[in-house]
Amino acid sequence: MPQSEDTQLLAEIESLYRDRFADFVAVAASIVGEREAARDAVQDAFASVVRARGGFRRSGPLEAWIWRVVINAARKRKQRSARDMPMEIAHSSTNGTAPEPKGASELAALVAALPERQRLMLFLRHYADLDYREIARILGVTTGTVSAGLHAAHATLRRSLIEVRT
Fold first, then answer.
1. pLDDT, tens digit, for every residue of 110-136?
2. CB–CB of 126/76 below 8 Å?
3. Nearest Cα to 33, choosing from 98, 77, 95?
4. Closest by CA position to 32, among listed 69, 95, 67, 83
5. How much is the pLDDT for 70?
6. C-alpha distances out from residue 134 to 7, 36, 39, 61, Å
7. Higher pLDDT, 125 or 3
8. DSSP of 128-164, one letter per residue?
9. From 3, 63, 101, 138, which residue has the greatest number of CB atoms within 10 Å?
10. Residue 86 in this model has a pLDDT that exceeds 60
């Protein structure tokens, strides 16, 4: 890769890191169950991305490639974890001063109980604001699978919330 292309790619990677770090950590936290471990997974993922950038051929969006690396790094970190920690929902407040909305802990528990792929789809759609096509590319599934998975997740959450409130 010519030096100018490499420099441009590094700048794009850095921009995604700076702009989307909180989103990457939120999704990683949904996998590993702990924010500190999620931050470590994101750091590991970006270190891998920088090392492997020469293998990126621009056949798809850089962000989709990075999401895939972050998800894989979080999965590896979870597998290495000696303890099975409960899943946490990472809140979008970055400074930790925002009050938790009423019912947020109930919703967090319900989301944590979803199958991993549905949980990932929810986070990629609602935290990372990715469209179905990007989510499908990241998870290696079809857009129909993403649509069905999100529908199932929403239906499960809706039913569970109704049960909790009655």
1. 888 899 899 989 989 988 888 999 999
2. no
3. 77
4. 83
5. 95
6. 25, 26, 22, 9
7. 125
8. S---HHHHHHHHTS-HHHHHHHHHHHHHHHHHHHHHH
9. 138
10. no
What share of the chain in percent tops pLDDT 90? Answer: 50
Contact present, 148 and 159 (Cβ < 8 Å): no
90, 25 Cβ separation under 8 angstroms: yes
Tell me the residue type at 68. Answer: R
Alpha-carbon distance of 41 to 39, in angstroms, equals: 5
CA distance 23 to 141: 21
Q: Does pLDDT of 57 surpass 90?
A: no
Classify residue 54 by its DSSP letter.
Answer: G
Any idea of the CA torsion for 134, 117, 30, 155, to the nearest 10 degrees?
100
- Residue with more model confidence, 86 or 163: 163
